[in-house]
Specification:
There is one protein chain. This protein is an all-alpha fold and about 350 residues long. It has helices at about 1-20, 20-40, 45-55, 55-70, 80-95, 100-125, 130-150, 160-165, 175-195, 195-205, 205-210, 215-245, 255-265, 275-295, 300-340, and strands at about 155, 245. A two-stranded antiparallel sheet has the order 1-2. Helix 4 runs antiparallel to helix 14 (about 275-295). It is globular and about 80 Å long.
Length: about 350
C-alpha cells in the first residue's frame, strides 16, 4: 500500500517536473540539435554556432527587459525603432565630427530617453502600453528617417567595429555574446532575487492590489520602460558596429522577434508569470532554428512564416496546458465527491 503511494507520488513529481516550460524548452532544443545534425553536417560546428549568435544578440538584449514589461501585463512595440533611432543619432553625430565614443554615449542617452518617454506615457499619463508604444513606434522611426534620410553612414573606427565583429580577447567567443551574458546575469538577479522582481510579478497579477499595498507602480513602470530604452540603445550600438554602417532600414521588424522570444520563453502575455531562464532558452532555440534554416537555404519569407507560427504556438500552448490541467483538477474533485 505504502509502496504504491510512493510510486504515485514519484510519478506525479516527475510529471510536475517535466510540465515546467523551461524543461520542455530544453527537450525541444535537444530535438532541434539532433535534427540539425542529421540534416546538415555543418550544424554542430562550434565556429558556426558561435558565429550564429551574432545574428540574434541584438534581439536577445532587447528581450531581457521586454520580459520585465510583459510580466507586468504590458508591451513595448517601439524597441526596434528605438534601436534604430539610437544608432542613427550616434552615426549622424560621428559623421559631423563628434568623437565616436562621445557619439556612442549620446546615442545611448537618446535611446534611454525614448524608453523614459514610454514610461511617462504609461506610468504618468496612464495610456495603455500598446497605444503609447504604438505612437512612439512611428515617432522614433520618423526621427531616424528625418536625421538620416536615405543616406548610409560608414567609416566607423576599428575600435568601435571590433565590438560587434571580433571575439573576446584570448577566446573564440564573439564580443556580443559576452555582452549578452553580462546583462543576462544582471536581469536574472533583478527579476528573481530583488524586490523589483516581486513587484513585477504582483503587478502582472493584480495592479490595483499593488497600489493599495503601497507598491510604487508608476515608478516601476517608468523604470522598466527606461531600462528597455537603454537596452535598445545598447543593441543599436552593437548592430552598428557589427554591420560597420547605419542606414534607415536596420532592425526592421525586430519587435516581432523580441516578443516571440519572450512569449516562447513562457512569459504570459496576460502578465504575472515567466522566468528569465525560459526567455534565455527560447532565444537560443530560435537561434538554432534560424541557423538550421540558413544552412538548408530556406528563403526569408518562409523563415518569417515559421517564426510567426512559433509565436502563435507560444501563445496557444500555455493556454491549452492550462485548460487540460483544469479539466484534470475538475475530474479529481468529482471523483473525490463520488467517494464521499
Amino acid at each position: 500500500m505504502f509502496s504504491s503511494k510512493k510510486k504515485n507520488t514519484t510519478a506525479q513529481n516527475i510529471l510536475v517536473y517535466f510540465s515546467k516550460w523551461e524543461i520542455q524548452l530544453v527537450i525541444i532544443i535537444l530535438i532541434v540539435i539532433v535534427i540539425g545534425s542529421i540534416l546538415s553536417p555543418h550544424f554542430l560546428n562550434l565556429k558556426n554556432q558561435l558565429r550564429n549568435t551574432k545574428n540574434f544578440m541584438e534581439v536577445s538584449l532587447m528581450a531581457l527587459p521586454m520580459a520585465f514589461i510583459i510580466i507586468t501585463g504590458g508591451i513595448d512595440l517601439s524597441v526596434a525603432n528605438n534601436l534604430l533611432m539610437s544608432a542613427v543619432v550616434m552615426a549622424v553625430l560621428f559623421e559631423r565630427g563628434v568623437p565616436i565614443w562621445i557619439a556612442v554615449l549620446i546615442g545611448i542617452v537618446a535611446g534611454t530617453l525614448g524608453g523614459l518617454l514610454n514610461g511617462i506615457l504609461v506610468g504618468v499619463v496612464k495610456l495603455p502600453s500598446l497605444v503609447a508604444t504604438l505612437g512612439t513606434y512611428s515617432l522614433f522611426r520618423g526621427i531616424a528617417y528625418t536625421l538620416l534620410r536615405e543616406f548610409t553612414v560608414k567609416g566607423f573606427p576599428d575600435s568601435f567595429n571590433s565590438i560587434g565583429q571580433k571575439t573576446f580577447p584570448g577566446t573564440i567567443i564573439p564580443n556580443p555574446l559576452v555582452i549578452f551574458a553580462f546583462f543576462t546575469v544582471i536581469f536574472t538577479l533583478l527579476l528573481h532575487y530583488t524586490y523589483l522582481g516581486r513587484y513585477l510579478y504582483v503587478m502582472g497579477q493584480n495592479e490595483d492590489a499593488c497600489r493599495y499595498s503601497g507598491v510604487p507602480v508608476d515608478k516601476v513602470k517608468i523604470f522598466i520602460f527606461a531600462i528597455t530604452g537603454f537596452m535598445s540603445a545598447i543593441a543599436g550600438m552593437i548592430m552598428a558596429s557589427r554591420y560597420g554602417s547605419v542606414d534607415a532600414d536596420i532592425a526592421s521588424g525586430y519587435e516581432l522577434s523580441v516578443i516571440t522570444a519572450v512569449v516562447l520563453g513562457g512569459v504570459m502575455t496576460t502578465g504575472g508569470a515567466g522566468t528569465m531562464p525560459g526567455v534565455i532558452l527560447s532565444l537560443f532555440l530560435l537561434g538554432f532554428v534560424r541557423l538550421l534554416m540558413n544552412l538548408l537555404n530556406v528563403r526569408g519569407p518562409i523563415q518569417k512564416i515559421a517564426f510567426g507560427a512559433l509565436l502563435v504556438a507560444a501563445i496557444l500552448l500555455p493556454k491549452l496546458v492550462d485548460i487540460i490541467r483544469r479539466k484534470r483538477r475538475k475530474k479529481a474533485v468529482e471523483k473525490n465527491l463520488q467517494k464521499v
